[in-house]
């Protein structure tokens, strides 16, 4: 299966910020869904309302579905986390298995502390 990320990886030095890199990644990750599925990989815009340190651009392997949201491993932070439905402010951009290692290497996460 075609790796949509490989061309971005080859030109990584041309991006001046993680925001610019993320925009380009989302341009090529054109398969989206309204709800994640267990066992699949996604990136999305995460903006929780509570006061926590969080990755606004997580790269997540979904592990559990809950009534309030879902849980998964964020490859950017290397941490297990919970994501409630209200904190996700975009569609879920699907990532193929053969694209995952390239995205992990790019480290496009962006961290914030809500105050």
Describe this structure in words.
This protein has 115 residues and is α+β, with helices and mostly antiparallel strands. The protein has a single domain (6-113), classed as SH3 type barrels. 23% of the residues lie in helices and 30% in strands. The chain is built from three helices and eight strands. It has helices at 6-10, 18-28, 97-106; strands at 32-33, 41-43, 53-55, 59-65, 69-74, 79-84, 92-95, 111-113. The strands form two sheets. The protein has a six-stranded antiparallel beta sheet. Strands 3-8 form a two-stranded antiparallel sheet. β4 and β5 (69-74) form a beta hairpin. It is globular and about 40 Å long. The model has no long low-confidence stretch (mean pLDDT 87).
List the helices and strands and how they pair.
Elements: H1 6-10, H2 18-28, E1 32-33, E2 41-43, E3 53-55, E4 59-65, E5 69-74, E6 79-84, E7 92-95, H3 97-106, E8 111-113
Antiparallel strand pairs: 1-7, 2-4, 2-7, 3-8, 4-5, 5-6
What's the Cα radius of gyration?
14 Å
Averaged pLDDT: 87
- Low-pLDDT residue spans: none
Total strands: the figure is 8
Corresponding CATH architecture: Roll
Percent in helix: 10-25%
What is the fold-level CATH name, i.e. the topology?
A: SH3 type barrels
């Amino acid at each position: 299966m075609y790796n949509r990320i490989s061309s971005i990886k080859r030109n990584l030095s041309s991006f001046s910020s993680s925001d610019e890199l993320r925009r380009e990644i989302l341009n090529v990750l054109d398969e989206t869904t309204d709800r994640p599925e267990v066992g699949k990989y996604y990136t999305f815009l995460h903006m929780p309302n509570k006061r926590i340190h969080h990755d606004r651009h997580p790269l997540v392997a979904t592990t559990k579905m809950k009534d309030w949201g879902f849980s998964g491993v964020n490859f950017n932070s290397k941490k297990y986390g919970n994501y409630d439905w209200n904190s996700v402010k975009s569609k879920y951009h699907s990532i193929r298995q053969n694209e995952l290692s390239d995205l992990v290497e790019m480290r496009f996460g962006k961290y914030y502390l809500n105050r």
